[in-house]
Amino acid sequence: MALDRRNLLRGGAGIGAAAAFGMGTPAAADSSAVSSSAVSGFVQRTKRSASAYGGTPVEYLRRMRRLLIDNDNMLGPGQAIKAVREHIEAIKGLRREAAGSDRHELLELQTQYAEFASWLYQDLGDLNSARFWLDRAADWSHSVGDGDLTSYVMARKAQLAGETRDLVEVVDLAEAAQHLARPRSRLAAVARTYESYGHALRGDSTESERAIDDVHNALDRVAEDSSPWGVWLNAQYVEVHRAQGLEALGKHDQAADIFMSAIRALPEDYHRDRGVYLARAAVAHAGAGAPEQAAAVGLQALTVAEDTGSGRIFTELSRLDKALIPWQKQPDVTEFRVAFDGALAHEA
After folding, report:
1. The dihedral of CA 98, 101, 104, 109: what is its sign?
2. Residue 117 shares a structural domain with residue 166
3. What is the dihedral of CA 213, 200, 158, 30, to 10 degrees?
4. Count of structural domains, the chain
5. Residue 239 falls inside a structural domain
6. pTM, whole model, 2 decimals?
7. What integer pLDDT is reported at residue 33 of this predicted model?
8. Is residue 294 situated within a structural domain?
């Protein structure tokens, strides 16, 4: 039976569920579904690759994670998720043979890969699998004993709760991440950013603005933090989250202006994130009663969505598609909605 993908998206299913990307369910994501022979194959291939490129398996897998992150930013999650899953299984296999510090380094790397897998599934729109891998990362981070890593994973759980607009969990998870973080650290500021959005979802504009202002005021202080986590926290990142909160509060005009200003200041290599922010800006324009701007910005976001296969962008554009219905006979709006339908048909 053919799926009505637009209706699925409008109903909040997300592009991951609507598109049936074939990446599996949380149950299928468990390592128990991977045969021992497959794991052995992943391990042997990793060893051969490490030898060929000069280095240990841990060094090779760290390098590959960095390359996959860069690849994801430009080409989207669909290109990276298979390799990430295979690398996780390879790490598990290598841990069976390792001891001492090598075993600890592998577990730390496994945790980092699990968090990355969660992010990829989140961007696909498969939020159940995103939760699955973030829960695994949280469990493994406690075994690693790295306080910064555990704090970061908890902050990511707050972010994911915000993605699902969970009014109960966002603030509590963000506060828990701040308790785990080193005082006045970058990770504490990252978690405070997500807390701000949680307050906005609850309709508390005062607490939301207070939290986001706290983060802005902390940027100079945390810039020298030596932690490798949250290095992307900058003024533009904070501003797009301010705009996201304003949009949730119904302040569409302000949200649209701040989104567009922050987007203009983004570094050129923020390709996929630019698409997400453009889509959210378009929704804000529609909410502010500016359908022409909404449709024009939405078309820009759609181009990035098609390039990357980002479920987050498609989900935001489905909100835009619905918001533009009152102006559906206007030429600019018609152009966007026809292009959006064509993109959904192509994804199918």
Report:
1. negative
2. no
3. -150
4. 3
5. no
6. 0.88
7. 58
8. yes
Q: Which domain holds residue 286?
A: 251-348
Residue 291 is assigned to a structural domain of this protein:
yes
- Asked if the model's pLDDT at residue 306 lies above 90, the reply is yes
Averaged over 315-343, what is the pLDDT? 96
Q: How far apart are CA 170 and CA 144, in angstroms?
A: 25
| Pairs from 141-146 (Cβ < 8 Å, separation ≥ 24) | 141/111, 143/107, 144/104, 144/107, 144/108, 144/111, 146/108, 146/111
- Residues 255, 229, single domain; the answer is no
Residue 269 lies in a domain: yes
Alpha-carbon Rg for the chain in angstroms: 21
Assigned token pair, 6: 């637009």
**Domain check: are 51 and 110 in the same one?**
yes
CA distance linking residue 169 with residue 269, whole number of Å: 32
Same domain, residue pair 272 and 228: no
From CA 122, how far away is CA 259, in angstroms rounded? Answer: 21
